[in-house]
Write a structure and sequence with these properties.
single chain, alpha/beta, Rossmann fold, 2 domains, nine-stranded mixed beta sheet, five-stranded mixed beta sheet, about 35% helix, globular
Length: about 375
């Protein structure tokens, strides 16, 4: 009954939203709205759902694979930043001035240009003018059709198949399922590490991609816990973590379920999970909840995500007890099977070369 009521309440809004995005997509398909080509390759990374597919770790994987091939830059809109216009991200920036995801990428790759600009066309032009950039990776830009990419990478969460989902606000889709056809590469993310070839074939059959589209599967590999407030300290001064036992989990991301499952699987089940909204700017009330939870569980380590750690370092009012017990788990993308990583890189390089050749031919 509750689902039926929700359907009748939200279905008209979802239908209206579907009409709006269909008209927008057709305007780009028919050339009514212009899409800009660039003389250097642009790779877009994104999804058609609301958050939680692992865009930032996959963007970091692209940087790792391609940075030695071409002078690579990353451009993001810098979600929830307080600054305006085009801005280069510095390792000394804050999440307020740059956004949490661009700042995380810059601190991991301080030698590559990372910039933020809501107007992606302008951002790419600025990067080309100032850094001798030969390749731009656009983070969270699958829907940003004002840029015509050389390669479009679409991420889809294994745990949340889009074929059973609905458009916003009834479901989590922010674009039509038909737009999957625009992707050059589709990656099924957050797969079980032990995913079998048979399970991959089932997903492949259900997706029914076109011959020009490449499909890959990835999972998350978590690293050793890093103390949030003692990251640069002498390792001997950092309290050692117990091998197992309950923990507190603190997250402000779209889909924390894989991290909670990993902690449980490795013998650290969350006794309490404080789950906040994605990109949360922690308030005084949030800080009180965190401090109170730590007081109630004085012996449990507190785990968070790498992205949340950036914002928590800037959050005032956390107790000394929380600061001493707070760790983040770094995450990296691993292909399934691992030897597919090199095939993925080859596919990207091939598609970039083909697209840039076609553009040169078109322009005569």
């Amino acid at each position: 009954m509750k689902y039926i009521f929700k359907w009748f309440l939200l279905a008209p809004a979802a239908a209206l939203y579907g009409i709006i995005i269909a008209v927008r997509n057709k305007c780009y398909d028919w050339g009514i709205c212009a899409a800009t080509d660039f003389p250097i390759p642009v790779i877009t990374v994104g999804n058609i759902t609301v958050g939680g597919t692992g865009k930032t770790p996959h963007t970091e994987k692209l940087v790792t694979l391609l940075r030695n091939e071409r002078r690579t830059a990353v451009l993001s809109r810098g979600y929830k930043r307080t600054t305006k216009g085009f801005r280069y991200v510095s390792p000394d920036d804050t999440t307020q001035t740059a956004g949490d995801e661009p700042l995380q990428i810059k601190r991991k790759f301080p030698d590559i240009p990372v910039a933020v600009d809501r107007q992606r066309v302008n951002g790419i032009r600025q990067l080309m003018a100032g850094d001798g950039v030969e390749l731009v990776i656009l983070d969270d830009a699958f829907q940003h059709r004002a840029v015509r990419p050389a390669v479009s990478v679409l991420l889809m969460d294994y745990n949340r198949p889009v074929r059973t989902d609905c458009l916003l606000p009834l479901g989590r889709l922010r674009d039509s399922k038909s737009q999957i056809a625009r992707a050059d590469v589709v990656i099924i993310t957050k797969c079980p590490p032990e995913m079998t070839p048979i399970a991959q074939r089932i997903v492949t059959r259900d997706l029914a991609l076109f011959p020009y589209q490449s499909l890959f599967f990835t999972t998350f590999a978590y690293g050793e816990a890093v103390p949030v407030f003692m990251e640069d300290s002498d390792p001997a001064a950092v309290p050692s973590l117990p091998d197992a036992g309950a923990c507190l989990l603190l997250t402000g991301i779209a889909n924390p379920a894989p991290l909670a499952a990993y902690l449980t699987k490795t013998g650290r089940p969350p006794a309490v999970h404080l789950a906040f909204a994605d990109h949360r700017s922690f308030t005084k009330r949030d800080v009180r909840r965190i401090n109170d939870a730590a007081l109630r569980h004085p012996r449990h380590p507190v785990f968070t995500t790498e992205k949340d750690a950036l914002r928590l370092r800037e959050t005032a009012g956390l107790s000394d007890d929380v600061r001493q017990r707070l760790y983040y788990l770094p995450v990296a993308v691993r292909f399934l099977p691992e030897d597919k990583e090199m095939l993925f890189k080859k596919e990207l390089m091939k598609k970039m070369k083909e697209r840039m050749h076609a553009l040169r031919v078109m322009k005569g």
